[in-house]
Write the structure tokens for this entry.
Amino acid sequence: MSEELLINISPMESRVAVLDNGILGEIYIERHHKLGLVGNIYLGTVVRVLPGMQAAFVDIGQSRTAFLHVNDMQREPRPVAEDKSKAATNIKKDNSDNSAILETSTDSLAVTPPVVSAQSTEVVPVSKTLIQHRLHESQRILVQVTKDQLGSKGARLTTNISLPSRYLVYLPSSDHIGISQRIDGEEERTRLKTELSSLMQTVNLKGGLIARTAAERVPVNKLEEDIYYLLQLWRTICARRQEINHHQSSELIYQELSLPLRSIRDLVHADTEKVIIDNTQVYEQVRYFAKEFVPFIYDKIVHYTAEQSLFDVHRVEDDLRDALKRRVDLKSGGYLIIDQTEAMTTIDVNTGSFVGGRSLEDTVYKTNLEATHAIARQLRLRNLGGIIILDFIDMLEQQHKDDVLESLQAQLTQDYAKTKITQVSELGLVEMTRKRTRESLGQQLCEPCSTCQGRGFVKTAETVCFEIFREIMRCARTYNSPKKFTVVAHAAVIDLLLTSESDTVADLEYLLGRVITFDVENLYTQEQYDIVLD
């Protein structure tokens, strides 16, 4: 499979499209006035500790306070002696060996977790420590964003800092060496683990490392360069943390790379044939970054200078519009219906106009198999996360159910997000989860409809007419003085009142002994109306 990266830059936003064999597979959008927070490291202030939820809200300088759960506080230093008077204790930091600093006075820095020193205090499992014993209001704490703000929810935080590079992820507070699950070969996994362990001893690196998928078959000298880069980055973060004014409630310590540079670091791999960029300045920045960190892609970076939009040439704009639709058509004539709610996303598979050839079971089987490809693509393209319910068409044969599930799992192996799938239930449903770290495409580009308030439907004109009749009768009983009622409503409602419901209006006028007149207000929605008493 061949891949291309298209990087489109405008004064308002940056967009990166991933094309799989010429078809849009993923889209990343970053608004310049609203940059993503994932990966950023902040020195925040604890605003509130909730023992009942075992969580805390932390001010990191955003519109909403961020959320920190006790399970995301991986480690805690065990104090040598408990000081009930909360006297300030300071453990000095030595930049040469990257040791930790812990300051526990109310207005001082509380660095959690213990950073990188093997000589730091003993750690205990988080399950044995309650959050109210670890945090208190007004405490300063070093945190990293793991999830952007989603809807009405604030960002999700962790105190377990992780710093990614091209081939590795550095975990200052861990002592674990891990290998990406996407690296299958046992021999290669063993090689990476051995070489990383050796390099950590050579450079005296304290902490943990994870080898990313891109590290497969990478020579040891490249891994060593990454380690030195990450070590220097962590030292810079530690130095920056010490320079912060203690009177500031929050401060950005480290900001993730811009979207174009992140895409080169995280999305480029051996199958990437070309990176096309339509902005001169970003083109030069990406080339410089690639030369330093991803040299194999350097000669594949192309500057697009034609007049026609880069995304129009590759039909990305059309695919983006389709990705916001509820219905996804399949080539066979079947289709998917995708509904995203607060709690979960549901995907319904339908045969549509596809009638098959041999039998109903065969038609259903082929439609479901085709749907697995479309579902996997739509999950990536729309960035759907959380709980996802897949309603495949009911199949009778167990082998067909197994084939459909196997096909879905195979398609999801290309997904960067972590997924988990259950077996086909008795009702023909497949439950799955997909890790969510940022807003879905629909949440990022759209907002709830101002007419229906996000319901997806409005009251019929007939329903509104009947509401108006009831309201007129209520007003007549309450107010005896009005001689005339004037109904102000949407054109569709007024038309119905003057045509199909004209007899009802006449009967109401006779019953109440008052005149009813009508005015059209084009600015009203179909559900809006007013009754003016004259």
Summary: The two ends are 73 Å apart (CA to CA). The chain has twelve helices and 29 strands. Residues 77-124 have pLDDT under 50 and may be disordered.
